[in-house]
Structure formats: C-alpha cells, structure tokens
Write a structure and sequence with these properties.
Blueprint (H helix, E strand, L loop, with lengths): L22 H33 L2 E2 L7 E2 L3 H8 L2 H33 L5 H14 L3 H10 L5 H6 L8 H14 L2 H11 L4 H9 L4 H29 L3 H6 L13 H11 L3 H25 L13
Antiparallel strand pairs: 1-2
Helix pairs in contact: 3-7, 3-8, 3-10, 3-12, 4-8, 8-10, 10-13, 12-13
GO cellular component, one term: plasma membrane
Protein name: Sugar ABC transporter permease
InterPro entries: ABC_transporter_permease, MetI-like, MetI-like_sf
Amino acid sequence: MTTAQMPKAAPAPEAAAVPRPPRRRREGAAWVFLSPWVLGACVLTLLPMAVSLYLSFTDYDLFNSPNWVGLRNYTQMFTEDPRYWRSVVATLTYVVIAVPLQLALALIVALALKNMKRGKGFYRSAFYAPSLLGASMSIALVWRAIFNDGGTIDNLFGTGGWVFKPGWALLAVALLTVWQFGAPMVIFLAGLQQIPGELYEAAEVDGAGRWRQFLSITVPMLSPVIFFNLVLQTIQAFQVFTPAFAISAGKGGPADSTLFYTLYLYDRGFVASHMGYASAMAWVLLIVIGVVTAVLFRTSRSWVFYASEGDR
C-alpha cells in the first residue's frame, strides 16, 4: 500500500471549552467578596454621616431626644459665635505655617538622603519614626513640657514658656507638626529616585549649577509628588486635634490662640453637650476641606508636570 493510499488519521478532538458561569453568578461572587467592605462603609461611614447631617439641624444634648431647629445652628455659628471665628483664624494660621514648613523640611532631608552612600536605611527609619509617634498624646505632653516654663527651650534661650504666650503657643503646635516630616520625606525620596540621572548629566554638560538643576529638573519632575504631599498634609492639618488639646490642656489657650477648629468642635459637642451644633461644625469643615482640595486640583494644572504628557 502506497503512502497516498494509507488512511489519514482522524483529527484530534478540539479541547472542550470551559463553560463560563453566568454573568449574574460572577457578579454575585464579586459582591460576596466585597460585602465586608460595603457593610463597613455603610455602617461605619455612610450611616454616621447621615445621622450627623440630621443632627446638624437639631438641638441635641446627648441625653434628650433631638429637637428640630432648622438652620439655627448654622446661623448661630456664622453670626453669633465669636469663638467660632477665632477657631477658624487659628486653624488657617496653623495650616499656612505648618504645611509649607513641613514639606520644605521633608524635601531638604530627602535630597540629602538621596545622595547618601552609606546608612541611608538607618537615617530614613530614624527620620520616619516621628511620623509614627507624633500623633500620640504622650509625645504631645512631652512637647508641652519642652516649651513650658523651665523647659528645654526656656533653659536654652530664656524665652519663657511658649505655651503661655499667645504669640508663641500656636508656633509650638506647628513645630510639632513640622517635626513629623517623615511620611512626606519618604514619598519625596521615592519620587527623587525616579528622576532619570541623564537629565542631570545633560544639564551639567550645559553648565547648569546645582540650583539651576533643582529649579529646572528636580522641581518640575517632582511636582506630582509635591502636589500629592500638599493635598494630604493640608487635609490632615485642617483636622489637627491632639497637639492643641495636650498643649493647651483642652482649653485652646492662651487667649484662644490654639483653639483649633476640631478642638472647638470637641468642646461644643462633648464638653458643652451641644451635639447638634458640633455636627453643624463638622459638616462645614467637610465642605471647606472639599473646596480647598478642589482648588488645589484646579490650580495644579498650571504647575504640576507629568512626564507622560507633552505639556503642563
């Protein structure tokens, strides 16, 4: 039998296609895995927000049933409460002082660590440690002792206790925030390591000095990271509470110089038992933070440079 007359082998059967489960079944499985997060978001976030919004239109003292008062809490807040506006001024002053100083120090340290050959891991951990400890009440109390009468600052400079001087108490709180520069420093360091070294080599060949390289290469290439840190630290600064509470013993003194917004909110809600008023303050703070964040995103179009885009 010739080769041409030999029977051809039957073609191998195609692999049976694995049937896909119905779409509803796949979606059901996804919701099962997402259910812990969804349940937590609803019970721990959305429901408390809805209750807080309702309470902001009521007179509620934590002990009796809420009494609907409409917009009275908001009108009282804006027109009849001078301490409210002092808390707003103190908070804005703190944000303007603390956030730029913290980011500037974080960037300076990150630039120093970038070129460090030995011990980078140790120094990075050492500088990051205050970010883990600074928000605790114990560190805030130590900070109060440092800036108190007879404390370290008084012994070194003879300036007296900062915590009892209206012009210096807020600066003491701001310095505690600046001291916690570790988190933005680590983010800056990661961003600096992503900048191509060829850009600096080309700039050096063209005769650009260190300062010109920093302004023309480092800042534009690092601008997305700067923007990210700016947004995060600004949001956190508007919500500062523990340092002001510890340094002023919960009173916001002296002369309401450290009466930050959240501290006054705590005073109205849990000290004076005006929970409806405190809820209204909380919603105003949420709106303000949202507006400030939106403004930062809007203005970022003119100064944040993304390497994947051809323009700013």
